[in-house]
Amino acid sequence: AITSFTIADTNSDYMTSGGVLYTKENGSMGNELLAYPEGKTDTSFTVPSSVDTIAIYAIYGNKYLTSIDLNNTLVVNESAMYGCENLENITSDKVELTGGFSFHGTAWLEDQPDKAILGNVLYRYTGTDSALDISGVFSIAPYAIAGNTSLETVTCGNSLRTIGEYAFFGIEFRKNESDGVSRFADYTRQGLRGGH
């Protein structure tokens, strides 16, 4: 497995720091973490403060990380940390959007109760309550509630901006309460095909 990335300092689009690959903008680290080596043996990692996006599959499958501080990260894309089986501590209060399966296969997700919230995202709900109040979240991750047969009511607030694809797939609600999402009821029976 790759343990480190190296890019020439003269490359105008990409750069590395500590063996991790990032975008480069105007000669400095850009806003996106592109690849964290699967074989890098560090047990903890703090995403640099200039980075607000973790790319698709960026940290996929690293078996060594046990702790990550997402710092100023706003977006964690699809499968970004999928299969990081020892990753048990994720620090994040700024995340606003996650892709599908971003944290699947991590110790963190396995240790979550019925409602897994990361930053401002409802990442997964597997509870048996008939009502779910997620008034404070900014987004609902793809597949977050899909297939839940217990829910009858979901309450969302004005802060909700994004509903991930198939977030409600396979669910029929009896009552919908939404303060900021139009056509909310239309999505519940069919599931979403896009992230809006």
What does this structure look like?
By secondary structure, the protein is mainly β. 6% of the residues lie in helices and 30% in strands. The protein has helices at 107-110, 184-190, and strands at residues 14-17, 20-25, 28-35, 44-46, 53-54, 67-69, 75-76, 89-91, 97-98, 115-118, 121-125, 131-134, 139-140, 153-156, 162-163, 175-178. The longest helix has 7 residues, at 184-190. The radius of gyration is 18 Å and the shape is elongated. The termini are far apart.
Which helices and strands appear, and what pairs or packs with what?
Elements (H helix, E strand, L loop, with lengths): L13 E4 L2 E6 L2 E8 L8 E3 L6 E2 L12 E3 L5 E2 L12 E3 L5 E2 L8 H4 L4 E4 L2 E5 L5 E4 L4 E2 L12 E4 L5 E2 L11 E4 L5 H7 L6
Parallel strand pairs: 3-5, 4-6, 5-7, 6-8, 7-9, 11-13, 12-14, 13-15, 14-16
Antiparallel strand pairs: 1-2, 2-3, 10-11
